[in-house]
């Protein structure tokens, strides 16, 4: 019997998908994604720069805000390049290993962002409910350790995902329904039983994002209860006003995930495929874009320093002009 060595089998490639039926305007669709990418990177970088150079902002609240900014930059870098590659250059193919790496970073960073929002809720809880002990409870070393735990927790929770997927043989349709990789989509392309992956994915979601959202809700129930017991109405509003930026960040992060996406999956047969894809973009890409805008507008210290930067820049230009 003669055996012919034809080399290793071709690598299984996945195909990314854009917005169905809009192939003729992909170039124009790439424009808002380019703008979102620029706004996310520049906006979060400006906030990080301001917090770094201003020693008066070296407080737990702004340390957590810095972590949120770094996480948002990471999400943008992990997801938008493949989206732009598909819409701009029609680069639809992605290898399994690249897909595994992308889904690991996307899921890890989203888990870390959820944890950071929980830390920020805890910061507001201590500041409003126990203001006299705030400085002793939330010191900078403690805040740094809490942040490190959140990062390690997110990475440890998602670390098994690529290995759980790598053990499979893939033989089903290789077309993703998004222009980036997610664990719940890739595992459906496997030839073998995916029960372990499904159970682990659900378990991790419940003990990370699910638990974080419940603890954030509990924190704000306690904050509201404390604020309503304050004798002065003005003091109550002042206390709650310090939470506005964080509440906006919570709504931006959790509303698409818990509300819109669950509705789309519930009425999946009736919903247009474009709706599901647009909502997935909303869920993934809006927090990195809107968070720096919200904090620049609603946080007085950040807004004041950004205005000073523009003011100094304008003054210097006038001086150079003369």
From TrEMBL:
Keyword Nucleotide-binding included in the entry's annotation: no
Subcellular location: Cell membrane; Membrane
Gene Ontology biological process terms, A to Z: cellular response to lipid
Keywords: Cell membrane, G-protein coupled receptor, Membrane, Olfaction, Receptor, Sensory transduction, Transducer, Transmembrane, Transmembrane helix
G-protein coupled receptors family 1 profile domain boundaries: 43-295
Record's bilayer topology term: Multi-pass membrane protein
GO MF annotation terms: G protein-coupled receptor activity; olfactory receptor activity
Signal peptide: none
Protein family according to the UniProt entry: Belongs to the G-protein coupled receptor 1 family.
Descriptive protein name: Olfactory receptor
Organism: Chrysemys picta bellii
């Amino acid at each position: 019997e003669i055996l012919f060595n034809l080399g290793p089998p071709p690598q299984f490639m996945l195909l990314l998908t854009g917005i169905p039926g809009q192939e003729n305007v992909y170039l124009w669709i790439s424009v808002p994604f380019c703008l979102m990418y620029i706004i996310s990177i520049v906006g979060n970088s400006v906030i990080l720069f301001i917090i770094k150079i201003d020693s008066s902002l070296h407080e737990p609240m702004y340390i957590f805000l810095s972590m949120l900014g770094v996480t948002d930059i990471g999400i943008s870098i992990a997801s938008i390049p493949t989206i732009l590659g598909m819409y701009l250059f029609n680069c639809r193919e992605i290898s399994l290993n690249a897909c595994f790496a992308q889904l690991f970073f996307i899921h890890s960073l989203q888990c870390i962002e959820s944890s950071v929002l929980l830390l920020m809720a805890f910061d507001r809880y201590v500041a409003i409910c126990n203001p006299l002990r705030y400085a002793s409870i939330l010191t900078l070393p403690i805040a740094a350790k809490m942040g490190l735990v959140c990062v390690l927790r997110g990475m440890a929770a998602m670390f098994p995902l690529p290995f759980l997927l790598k053990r499979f043989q893939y033989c089903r349709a290789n077309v993703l329904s998004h222009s980036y990789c997610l664990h719940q989509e890739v595992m459906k392309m496997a030839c073998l039983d995916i029960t372990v992956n499904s159970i682990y994915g659900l378990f991790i979601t419940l003990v990370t994002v699910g638990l974080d959202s419940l603890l954030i809700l509990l924190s704000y129930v306690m904050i509201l209860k404390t604020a309503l017991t304050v004798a002065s109405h003005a003091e109550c509003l002042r206390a709650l006003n310090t939470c506005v930026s964080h509440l906006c960040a919570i709504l931006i992060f959790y509303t698409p995930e818990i509300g819109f996406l669950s509705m789309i999956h519930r009425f999946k047969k009736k919903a247009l495929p474009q709706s599901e894809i647009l909502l997935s973009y909303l869920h993934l890409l809006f927090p990195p874009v809107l968070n720096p805008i919200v904090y620049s507008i609603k946080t007085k210290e950040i807004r004041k320093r950004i205005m000073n930067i523009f003011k100094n820049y304008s003054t210097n230009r006038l001086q150079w002009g003369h």
